[in-house]
Amino acid sequence: MKGPPQRAHAYIEGIALWAPRLPGWEAARAILRGEHAAPDTPAPRPTPSILPAAERRRAPDAVAIALEVAARACEHAGRNPAELASVFASTEGDLSISDYMAATLAATPLQISPTRFHNSVHNAPAGYWTIATSCMHAYTALSAHRYTFANGLLEALVQSASSGESVLFVAYDIEARGPLAAMAKSRGLLAAAIIVSPKPGTNDAIELLWNLREHLPPSAAFKPSSAALIAGNALESCLPLFETLADEAAREIHLSLSAHQTLCLETTGRRGL
User: Fold this and answer.
1) How far apart are CA 246 and CA 32, in angstroms?
2) CA-based Rg of the chain, rounded to a whole angstrom?
3) Of 51, 56, 26, 27, residue with least CA distance to 39
């Protein structure tokens, strides 16, 4: 019988996570490890410092949280953002602006805000990022419904393996608003980012083995208490990976790419160098 496909090697260099009750990777790591309780009061939305002051004030939620984790992952890895290709993934994009656009077009179409209109496109956070960091490398913006996180991560892994360079992966989703909430179910704010590399760049790089398999049951979140902190967000399937990274454990994780295929990840618990 034919065995599973050979696993490819990758390394995770930088990690970032942000949610109102997981406000930044250092805090989130301690909370996910059970070392600290999550704050009772949700943290305010971050204001990414890489944006000019005027843009920072106008930035919608999706842009703010995506750029926050992108910047923190680069900082964690000691990487220059201008030197990285990137993959941005979101299940639904900016649902708040989508609700505004639909309501305004139905009622008063001539009053559409130009600023909100240009923020409504799915690749808006990626565009803000490349402009703010003066990055001339390619970016990809994708969505794959409930399989978005896994497909975005696979895209980053494949790009990194084929180019031989590190790639920034950023995933984010926000609260659904208005009538769209009945169809596009998502609660709260959640953003995550990692930098993947085909070779260890630092002593802190975490070894990752990966391959594709026929459908396997997806990994559940390991700690119900931490799952509750982001439950209902469209990106909640990212939690098993980040719990594993927080624990620095050797563990296999299954992320569904579709109804028929699975991205299998194994963190070895070993550092890169």
Assistant:
1) 6
2) 18
3) 27
Residue 115: its pLDDT value, please?
85
Yes or no: say if 12 and 195 are a contact pair by the CB < 8 Å rule.
Answer: yes
* pLDDT at residue 1 in the model: 44
Supply the angle between the helices 239-247 and 25-32 in degrees, to the nearest 10.
80
Q: What pLDDT shows up at residue 273?
A: 43
Angle at 123 between CA 118 and CA 124, to 5 degrees: 40
Q: What pLDDT shows up at residue 270?
A: 64
In the chain (273 residues long), the average pLDDT of successive 10-residue segments reads 75 96 96 91 92 86 96 96 98 89 90 88 95 97 96 98 97 90 88 95 83 89 78 91 91 95 89 53
φ, ψ (nearest 5 deg) of residue 9: -100, 140
What is the predicted pLDDT for the residue at 95?
Answer: 86
Alpha carbons 110 and 20: distance in angstroms, whole number: 35
Tell me which of 3.40.50.12780, 3.40.47.10, 3.30.420.140, 2.115.10.20 is the CATH number of domain 13-199.
3.40.47.10
Q: Which residues contact 238 (CB under 8 A, 6 or more apart)?
A: 149, 171, 190, 192
